[in-house]
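queue> holo job accepted (histidyl-adenosine monophosphate)
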Amino acid sequence: MSDPIKRVKGFADLFEPESTAFTFLENTARRVFGLYGYTELRTPILERTELFARGIGDETDVVQKEMYTFPDRGGRSLTMRPEATAGVMRSFIEANLANSQPVSKFFTYGPMFRYEQPQKGRLRQFHQLNCECLGPVEPGADAEIITMLMHFLDELGIEDLCVEINSLGDRNCRPAYRQKLLDWARQLPADQLCPDCRRRMNTNPLRLLDCKIPACQSLTQDAPVMIDNICPECREHFDAVCALLDKNGVPWKLNPRMVRGLDYYMRTTFEVVSNKIGSQGAVTGGGRYDGLIRDLGGPDVPGIGFASGMERLAMLLPEVKLQRPDFYIAVVEDMAMNCAFELSRNLRRAGFKGEMSFSAKKMKHQMKVAARLNARKCLILGSLEVENQMVQIKDMDSGEQIAAPLADIVNFFE
Ligand code: HAM
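queue> job finished
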């Protein structure tokens, strides 16, 4: 016998109840985001590699180390999307939507792929629920999308979540801050920084601030932060977002060290973090990315969005209660099989969920199956029942058993 084939590392099979949790997440997202005018967009999983290199940023960890990139048979470099935003921007530009509508709001969801070290809450194929609002530059759009996100998380029944926000400044104020941070960081003992941080000094010094390694964190504890160095326009924008969140009753917390791992962000950035699911606690990340659409060759349309990780949300959901089957039909004699088929058909067409046995088996065995399925009722059919056009109905919780006419069974269930 040959060895069974295993799944790819970091890729998961989703059985019940996780698959039911995913359906619940998708349905709740579609409903809540729909209330705010978001429409569903499905973009391809494969894109040209250049889209992510230009969109997410050449120097980011995602582009440098984590993409599934390969040449297709025609020699073109393709990448399995590591996130949804760049693809949504590409499709917005390609469909020429900027000319036809002042605001475009898209909800998209599905699998994303990053070659990361798998651990609890971190996979190589994971799923995101993703929203993008393109068009408005005003702080109201930032406040609306954060309010919507918290509305969604409330509807999921996940408690104790707070959104952390920050401002990353813009093209006017960030270069000066970057230089200030670099000047400050140069006095750090480089040999005590982790290899990633040593590299970030040259490529993306802002990311020194969100290194997770304790030694680096304590070395950069007193580093200057962007929020203290933003220009008056960015400050005005940020204060307006915070004031609107307060007015909407959305609890938020400033996190001056949040820098996000993708290069396209500017001004408002936000994350929702939970302390209940271990080290990979970020359930949502997002922010404003004015300039991204232009950098990808489109018109100068601003935008803001977020993505929530579905695996991480599923871990936080209150326990999913699977729907119990209403019936199990136990066939105890072969000649009752046709009758069992008819009975199951009538019940299912009337909306009742259940299973039937496909061969006659002893009562004891049938009861075990009904109990394993957690069926509410076991319907017992043998030759006597068929002759009398009756069925025995055993309540699997109380153990009570009664006989009822077959013709009446749907009424009985109703
Ligand atoms: P991100 O912070 O890279 O942002 O990912 C968003 C969320 O996806 C994370 O908060 C986390 O819940 C989930 N996630 C990321 N990587 C993994 C993984 N390896 N395994 C499991 N879950 C993961 C973005 O992707 C941006 N595109 C969000 C955005 C949309 N910004 C603006 N619009």
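queue> The chain has a mean pLDDT of 95.
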